Each structure stands twice: as C-alpha cells, then as structure tokens.
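Supplementary notes for students who missed Thursday's class. We covered one full example, reproduced here. Read the sequence, then the structure, then the short commentary at the end.
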Amino acid sequence: MTEPIKARYDIYVNTISLGVMKAAEAILLEEGGLLTRFGFRYTENYIDQPLAFALDPVQLPLTRSEFLFACRNGIPGILDDYLPDDWGRKVLARLALYRHQKKINRHSCVDTLSELGNSRIGALQWVSDGKAPQYESGAALSHLSEAELAAQLIDKPENYPEQLDELSLLYLANAGTGVGGARPKALLYEGAEHYLAKFNRLSQDPYNNARVELACLKLAELAGLEVFSGRVREGVNGREVLLLNRFDIITKGRCHYRKHLITANAMLKEPSSQRDHSGVFRYDDIVTLIRRYSFDVEKDLTQLLRMMLFNRAINNTDNHERNFSFMHTENGYRLAPAYDMVPTLSTGEYPAAGYHYSPQPPLPSEAKTMGKVFGLPKTQVRKIAEEVENAVQQWSVIAAQTGVECSDIAAVAKVIKW
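Structure (token representation):
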C-alpha cells in the first residue's frame, strides 16, 4: 500500500505594490498520487500589509484563519491555476525521465511541482518550504527555434524519433510549462519585452493558427474589446509562431513586477470537493463573479458582453471557464483582457459557455433586440452589439492585412455569423 505523502510549500507574490514577499503557506497531502487534503494560511506579515489582497477572493478570503479543504478528485483553484495542463505535464514527465531516470505521476500535484521551473504567468510562485523564490521570464527570444522544435518533439515525437534530448526538454520545461492550455507554448523575453509564444500544431490545426489568432485579436480590438496583441515570427524551423505580448508583467526600470491572475474556473470550484464547476457553465456565472468581486462592475460587464457576442460571432466554442480570468490591480480585482479567441470550423457544436437557459449565446444581431443583457441598459447593449457586428463583418479585410492565406480566410468566413 502506498504511503501518504505530505509536502509543505511557501507561496510568494511579486507585485508592484508589495514587491516579492511570502504571502502564504500550504500543506498538500496525497494518497496514491491524488490530492486528498489541502491546508492553507496567510502569513502574519502579509496580512499586516495595508495593500495585501486575497489570492482567491472566493475560497481564500484575507483572514488570519487556517483553511482546510477535503479534495475529492479536485484541486483548489490557487494550486490548479499554477499547475500546467496536460501538455505541460507531458513535458515535465519526459524531462524527469531524461534528467533523473524516473517516472513521475502526471496526476500528482507534488510530483508536478517538483519538476516545474521558475517561469510563470502571474504573480505567484510556489517553492518548497524554506526555499527562496526565483522569478524568471522564460527563455531568451534568441532560443525561439530550440523551444519551438522541442514543442514539436513533445507534441508528435514519432515525427522526430532521434532528436529529442535533455537540452531541448530543458528549454521547453523552463519556458513552456508555466502556462495553462493544451496548445504547445513558451514564455520568452527580449530586453524589456515579454512574450507568450504559441506554436502551430502540425497535424491538428485546421488552419495556420498563428495568423488566424492574430487576425482575431485585431478583429476583437476593432470590436471594442480589451486585448493584448502581438506579431507573427516567420521562418522558425520552417514554421510560423505567434508572439503575444504578456499583460501580466509591469516593467519599472530594471525590475519586472507581476499582476496576479485567477481564472473563473478557480473561483467557481465546488467548495466541498474542490472539483471544477459542475453542471452547465454560463456567462451568467461570470456576471455573478463580476458583481461580487470587481472594483469596476459596469466596465467589466460591458467587456464581458463584447466577449460573449464576439465569441459567438466567430464561432469560438472553446470559451470554457479557464479562458476567463480576473486580474488584481492596485484598485482590486477586475476582468482580465480577453484571450484565446479563435474560431472552430465545425458547425453545429454548442459552445462551452451558454447564456441564461440557452446553450447558445445570442448573435450580435439578436442582442440588438433583446433589451437588457447582464443588467446593462438596452441602448448600451444595442450600441455594443452594433460595434461587434460591424467589426466581424471586416474579417476578410483584417485577415488579409494580417497575412492569413486566402484558403484560411474563406474557411473561417464560412462560420462567422452576425
């Protein structure tokens, strides 16, 4: 019988108002490679800071109390957001095999934390009890080719049977496992600029994802959404890579500070089990979070309305709970800029997020006649719907300007509706 494993961690924050400081302590108890208990408490020093804030305003309010969670096939949000998704865990498992000749349990939080590098999205860093944090920015942009090739090696190793080595894995483990999501990606920097690189998947992408996603970001900006754009780097091992500007980093002089991010998925965890949100996910769930935790409710509700209408218009069906985040600023929490908005070419699929009692959110043309949405005045709803409608009608023009191939422009145009 496998002995239970107990591991202790210190959780640090790195923000412009607090600097780098130890904010909390956590204890993980695992049995059979699965998390069963989770203990958490804020440090006295952190709580005494006038600008301290709750790292999870739903499950971990800023108090001096200890929090104990029973984890029934679930992971608390503050940890779940920090851990990589399936693709990142695959990278770490391969690296552990190369570096230590050992197999790690990809489902084990403790095993995964033991292999994680110091390059992360957001302000948090988990370190083993008593160790110092090291905030890193991933790999230098000059190593983009190595990181991209390593991503392809991990994603489809049968295509490169002799090329996977420890050096390639190190590039990717240090730069590519600090980001959630299933798509291969890496964190990179060049001087004061910081990027999230997203790599095309050779056999799974229905279009050139780098070009199409960049075009969608430009289209979203035209529709009035708050987004961070980027650029496409050509000729990376004969392929193209999307370099997105990171919105979680603040540069002041030579120092790089972070903004704390928490996903809607983390905030909607089931309290009794720490499992992901059960049942139907709706934009209404995010509305509830905005009304309770945002310092600028009206601004966030208008941003969410634009996101909902835009996602429906471009046929983005992958609008799940992890693709919506809240960001902590000097004024408190607010909805983070929109991200991961790309079309699905198949039709007839329901999106991950519904609205009210419908599995399909409204199209912009439908929203114009609906009256109030998210409690916003009908005149404001109509104006926003018209702006989104006018923007998505420019798909072919914006896509061509972004360098999307004619065949991809035509394929996406077939699924866009307004």
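Commentary. The chain has a mean pLDDT of 89. Residues 256-413 form one domain. If anything here is unclear, bring it to office hours.
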